[in-house]
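Let us practice reading a record.
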Amino acid sequence: MHTIKKNELILQRNSTALLIIDIQDRILAAMQNNQQLIKNTLKLIKGFRILNLPVIYTEQYPKGLGPTSAALLEELKGINPVQKMSFSCFGADGFAEQLFSKNIKQVVVAGIESHVCVQQTVMDLLANGFQTDLAADAVSSRSEFDYNIALNRMRSLGAEITTIESVLFELTAVSGTDEFKAISKIVK
């Protein structure tokens, strides 16, 4: 009898969190594919809420850049933003503690900008031993060139480059459940 192995890179519900980085209206307008970014980030948030998984979101210098986009705030109700001045989320007070206290091992990342705050956070997540899954269809930069270079760099450093649909179905794991049906409606 063979022992069947499961790939350890598949996202596990008991150890995964969603991190949304700096999707604030004042900078969102300048991003490539910004409406798609909002639409896909909303799908991630809704999916993580259905699966009852932790969601963390950050705001870069909210005094100057304003709050998180109003398009996301309804789905983020009940969660307080992590405010930061540093580009990496690890420079924000209490950020790392949220991950460690919830026994998170895998972090799904969405947000802006791919080549600045997202990339520096991904690099620090990897340095701290977190499996980092970057939802390529839920991150953006002002230029496509910066976006592409950032994705290639993060991949070369060990980040898993994936999509929102892959993330949600990995976490759902099986079909036929009420959660699967709810997730299926979100990704359509």
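A brief commentary: The two ends are 40 Å apart (CA to CA).
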